[in-house]
C-alpha cells in the first residue's frame, strides 16, 4: 500500500495516481485555498514577473500564478517526480498560459542566481533531505529584494477527536515520524533567518481535514507501519481502524492541522 510519506520519491512507488488524487482532494478544501490565495498575494506578482514554484506537484498553483504574471511574465514549476511533471504538462495543454515545467531537485535548482522575481514552496520542503539547503537554493535563484514564500505544515499540530487519547497520540506520532521532516512547519522561520532572508514574518493557518484526507495520513497505511515497527499492538490497530470507521459512519469525525505561511526578502 502506498504511504503519503513517500511524497519525496513518488516515481519509485509506481502509484503516482494515489499522490495526485490526494493533492486534488486537499487543494479542493476551502481552508487550503485560503492560505494559497494569501500566498499569491505575498508573492507580489504582477504582469512581467518571473516566479518559481518548488515542488509544484500537478502545477495547479503554477497555472494560477501564470494568470497573474501575464502578459510578459512566466510561472515555472519544478518537481523531482517525472509523473508529477507529466501531469502538470498534461493539465497545461491548450491553456496558452505562460507556464514551464521541469524535472529538478529542490536541492540543486537548475537556474542561475537571481533568475526569478519571487519563489515559493508549498508543502514540499517537508519531504526534502535538507530543508536549510532548499531554502538557500530558493534565496539564491531569487533576485535581491525579491520575495520567498513557504507554506509548511507541522504534524505535531495535527488533531483528531479520538476517544482514546494515548492511542491517538501513538498513531499521530507514527505518522509524523514517518515523514522526513514531520515537524518542519515550526522550523521554517528560523531557517529563513539562518538563510539570511530579510524582514521575515510568519502566520499560522489551520486547515480542516475531511475524513478522506485525514485517513490518508493516520489510516490504514500508518496503522500498518506502526504495527510493523511495534509501536502499536494488533489489538490497538484494529481498535483504531474500527473507531475511525464508526466516527465516519456517525458523521462525528473531526480533524484539523496547523501549518505556517512564512515569507521574507532575498
Ligand atoms: C505535498 S506535494 C505538494 C505539491 C504542490 N506544491 C501543492 O501544493 O499541491 C509535495 C511535492 O513535492 C515534490 N518533491 C518532494 N521532494 C522533492 C525534491 N527533493 N525536489 C523537488 N520536488 C520534490 C513531490 O514530488 C510533490 O509533488
Essential attributes:
10 helices, 7 strands, 7-stranded mixed β-sheet, Rossmann fold, binds S-adenosylmethionine
Descriptive report:
The structure is a single chain. With 266 residues, the protein is of the alpha/beta class. It has a domain of 186 residues: Rossmann fold, CATH 3.40.50. It is 43% helix and 24% strand. The protein has ten helices and seven strands. Strands 3-2-1-4-5-7-6 form a seven-stranded mixed beta sheet, with helices on both faces. Strand 4, helix 5 and strand 5 form a beta-alpha-beta unit. The longest helix is centred in the last third of the chain and has 16 residues. It is globular. The mean pLDDT is 96. It binds S-adenosylmethionine (SAM). S-adenosylmethionine (SAM) binds next to helix 1. S-adenosylmethionine binds next to helix 1.
The CATH topology label of one domain is Rossmann fold
Strand content: 15-25%
Query: Major sheet, described briefly?
Result: 7 strands, mixed
CATH domain class of one domain: Alpha Beta
| β-strand number | 7
CATH architecture of one domain: 3-Layer(aba) Sandwich
**Class by helix and strand content?**
alpha/beta
Radius of gyration: 19 Å
Q: How many distinct helices?
A: 10
Shape: globular
Spell out the CATH superfamily of one domain: Vaccinia Virus protein VP39
Order of helices and strands: HHEHEHEEHEHHEHHHE
Bound molecules: S-adenosylmethionine
Q: Show unreliable segments.
A: none
Distance between the termini: 41 Å
The percent of residues in helical segments reads 40-55%
Mean pLDDT: 96
* Side-by-side strand order of the widest sheet: 3-2-1-4-5-7-6
